[in-house]
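call fold(seq) -> tokens
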Amino acid sequence: MYKTLLAIENTKLLSRLKGLDIWNKKTGLELTAVSAQDTRLRGGDIDLIVAEVSQNNLSELIEALTALKQSLGKDNTAMYVSELAQLFNSRDAAFLTRLKETADGIDRGLAGKTAMQLVADIADAVFEENEWLDLYINKNDIAAYGDTGNTADNFVTSLTNFFAGFSELYPNIQSEKIRNVILYILNNPESDLKQKSIAASLYMNSSYLSTVFTAHTQLRFVDYLTNVKLRRAAWLLRSTTLKVADIAERLDYKDMGYFSRLFKKKFGVTPSDYRVPDSYNYQI
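ret:
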């Protein structure tokens, strides 16, 4: 943050500089004083002093300040991505609030990148932290979770929907044992995921697993497992040419009619219709 002093006697020039749309904490340029007297009061608190400005060099000064703002905007980009990715990965509800604040910075041109560039950077950071995501989400599709267009509103919509889907797959719980169960399922969606098999793989009692899982997630084990399998099915439909029957079989659904009913209840369309690009507004 550059705390800036405008030590300028010409009141007209001072007024014009004060009116520039670059003085706020989000740009990295903060106007903290407007008189030479304040330098004596603040001492070392001032980072940048603007003085000896005339009408002749005013435009050059404005260009220099704008360039400084843009340079600081690059630093803002790294800050936005790091902070939002951290909140995202921890499933912190503050993510949604910070998302809207960042969108304001995008609207004001302070983020250093466009809306969809920031979406891509945040998605990259989240995918790097959670390798299992590649089994359920095509990273390039995340922007499509909002409306079309490179705007701050679409930035919010895309990442809000991504966050909701991520939190559903990987709920924020305190129990390390249940987190291990969830990660085992997420990393092995096409394996034998019967409750007894998972319990045996993780050296847990099957009945204990069912009871504790529900207590920590507020979901029945079978309901969570169904959700994971259906999201894996959605990925396979969009990313492979496998037949619907083969996808159902890979996910241990023996009854095609039952699988299709579950899928339609979850996504609002049949598996075959989900695969058609123009027939559905895809969700994660």
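The first helix runs from residue 11 to 18.
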